[in-house]
Amino acid sequence: MKALVAPSYGPIDQLTIAELAKPAPGPGQILIKLRAAALNPLDVKLATGVMREMMPVSHPFVLGLDAAGTVEAVGEGVTRFTPGDEVVAFTHPVAGAVAEYTLALDGPEVVARPDGLDPVDAAALPVAAMTAAGIVEQAGLNSGDSLLVVGATGGVGSFVVQLAAQAGVRVVATAPPSDADYMRGLGAAATVDYTSGDTTEEALRHVPGGVDVAVDLINAGPALAGTAAAVKTGGLLISPAGGPPVFDREVRASYAHIEATNGLLQRIVEATASGRLRVEVSARFPFAEAQRAVVEFAGKHTRGKVVITF
Q1: Which residues, listed in sequence order, are joined to residue 29 by a DSSP beta bridge?
Q2: Among 6, 34, 158, 276, which residue is least crowded by beta carbons within 10 Å?
Q3: CA distances (Å), 138 to each of 32, 70, 125, 131, in order?
Q4: Which CATH number describes the domain made up of 2-125+279-309?
């Protein structure tokens, strides 16, 4: 089979489509023939070696965590699916998804894809939407509370905005003027133009005294202090990247991670299929152009998701 691989840690321009052995499903595994796979920032970090201390990978390393496709074969003990079933999957840590075939564990990481959900939209869901759901749960917000989302137009951010707004939270989202209407369409009550002013000052103008919770999907480490300044004393800052445990003014910190808990991906898929959750796919690339897709994805901020099709 063909797959997009990193032969070693290094720059993404070394990525190549290589011929690898077609995997066979072991006990409790599902072999999926790909129809679409989505890109995530973690793919780039794993390929380049930025995450080698925390999440080392073996080489050749196949990129991709999000998959939508058709069940090709199942391993011993798998009874939920049979060949021909259409599925959505989070494939980490079993195999990479930007390949003609991939493996996934039989469990909450794989769910059936409804007929009304396009494979491209389905592939855009697992990492981004599950991460967003975990962040909103950690935030512990109630209807009427305020939330600042930094990086709101990206894959995770777009889902955080929607899920929080649907819970009655007043969402302030960072976005350039060209995306302001898009953010309001997802449920944001206000937007902050990070391209022309100070994000913290603008957020405090919308919510004097500071927001209850801020979610920063862009910054890490000491750089999170700027976002923390927009949070009220005793409030919470959440980020999927690392940083200090506390900030000035007793602002707490929580560092989110993706977790495919039982039923979560199923609920996300059903909500998207029914139209309650919106997916934004900003670019589609055929598999033959997968290397270019990653280079362009890594080189600029994208609205929503980038998906590779097969």
Answers
A1: 105
A2: 276
A3: 32, 33, 19, 11
A4: 3.90.180.10
In the chain, domain spans: 2-125+279-309, 128-255
At 128-156, the pLDDT tens digits run 999 999 999 999 999 999 999 999 999 99
Long-range contacts of 45-50, Cβ-Cβ distance < 8 Å, separation of 24 or more: 47/6, 47/9, 47/12, 47/15, 47/294, 48/6, 48/9, 48/10, 48/11, 48/12, 49/9, 49/10
What would the two tokens of residue 78 be? 């798998």
- Residues of the chain falling short of pLDDT 70: 245
**DSSP code string of 178-210:** GGHHHHHHHT-SEEE-TTTS-HHHHHHHHSTT-
For the domain made up of 128-255, give the CATH fold: Rossmann fold (3.40.50)
Q: Vertex 255, ends 252 and 261: CA angle to 5°? A: 125
